[in-house]
Amino acid sequence: MTTHVLLVEDHAFTRDGLRAAINLESDLRVTAEARSGEEALDVLARTQASPQPVQVAVLDIGLPGMDGIQTAAEIGRRYPQVRMVMLTAHDLRDEVLAALASGAHAYCLKSADPALLLLGIRAAASGSAYLDPQIAHHVLGSIRTPHATSPLTPRETEVLRLIADGQGNRDIAANLGISVSTVKLHVQEILVKLHAADRTQAAVQALRQGLL
Predict the structure, then answer these.
(1) N or C: which end of the chain has fewer CB within 10 A?
(2) Cβ(102)–Cβ(73) below 8 Å
(3) What DSSP string runs through 90-132?
(4) C-alpha 60, offset from chain centre
């Protein structure tokens, strides 16, 4: 059985190399490509109703515009059946934790042996999780180290979690049993505390900071 892969990478040279490595495998096939997160969402909107829908999206974390973390969160919201592999050139703790919080099922380094990326794709496709051995220590460290104190109240955190799930004010109010005006007040406080310009930016910052 062939796993159909969406490759999301803005650098043509890197994208060509990744495509070649993946397509050498008999059970994997790059059937869609995108150069940005926005383009990836457009591609998925077209391909998911086709006879060969994408099953795994391989995302560069450093995409222009909507970055890989934002893209993963949006793909997870719109297409929960698509598994996601995050690919990065950096071994950074905050990026690793934010990527996992955004819904990525595997995390791989570009500098690693290509066989590890293939392992990550196969693990994600099978419903498992995979972390490059070089970055697994970040996750272990986050388990052993207490989380930073959140500036948000428990109720504001609940509201922000629902915002990250894509819910509007009325849905949030219904879910939490509060008025829409109260939700709006919570949103205003969240934006101020996280120094965010809008709801999406607030959700992304919270993911990056491990607040959700």
Answers:
(1) N
(2) yes
(3) ---HHHHHHHHHTT-SEEEETTS-HHHHHHHHHHHHTT--EE-
(4) 10
CB 10 within 8 A of CB 71: no
Residue 166 sits at φ, ψ, to 5 deg, of: 90, 15
Task: Calculate the dihedral angle through the C-alpha atoms of 34, 39, 44, 47, rounding to the nearest 10 degrees.
Answer: -70
Q: pTM for this structure? A: 0.67
Statement: residue 166 has pLDDT above 70:
yes
Q: In whole angstroms, how far apart are CA 32 and each of 10, 53, 58, 106, 152? A: 14, 9, 10, 19, 40
* Residue predicted with more confidence, 63 or 100: 63
> b/e map of 164-183 (b: 16 or more CB within 10 Å)?
beebebeebbeeeebeeebb
Beta pairing, strands 83-88 & 56-60 = parallel
Both structure tokens of 211? 């607040």
H or E stretch at 83: strand 83-88
Q: Write out pLDDT tens, residues 80-133.
A: 999 999 998 776 666 777 777 778 888 888 888 889 899 999 999 999 888 887
